Amino acid sequence: MDITSAETKATYDEIKKYVAEHNAVMKVSNLCISQVKRKCGIEVGKNLCVATRRMDCLQGNSTTAAIDLEIVPSPNLPKNEDSRQPQCPEDKESAIVEALKYFKMIQQK
């Protein structure tokens, strides 16, 4: 039985949980995870969209709500090349690398 590439990928929440369990309840941000993934050559996807709700009208007993979908830039990617972002500390970076190895997203060396 072959393992597909999707089955070998861990979610950000799974990586956070692994890091917390194996590193004295260390918390890592999505930003740190995406920075480490990029350093390791793992493609980082973009957040697709954020839904915002607004009430269009209230009529008698019925409520009609509309959902506006707004495409927003990913919070994990810089808006432009010149923008500054905090860099992931070395201890968190090594903990995330350990998690990526555990989930077989990068090769063990």
UniProtKB/TrEMBL annotation:
Reading the lineage from the top rank, the first entry is Bacteria
Protein's name in the database: tRNA (Uracil-5-)-methyltransferase
Q: List the taxonomic lineage.
A: Bacteria, Bacillati, Bacillota, Clostridia, Lachnospirales
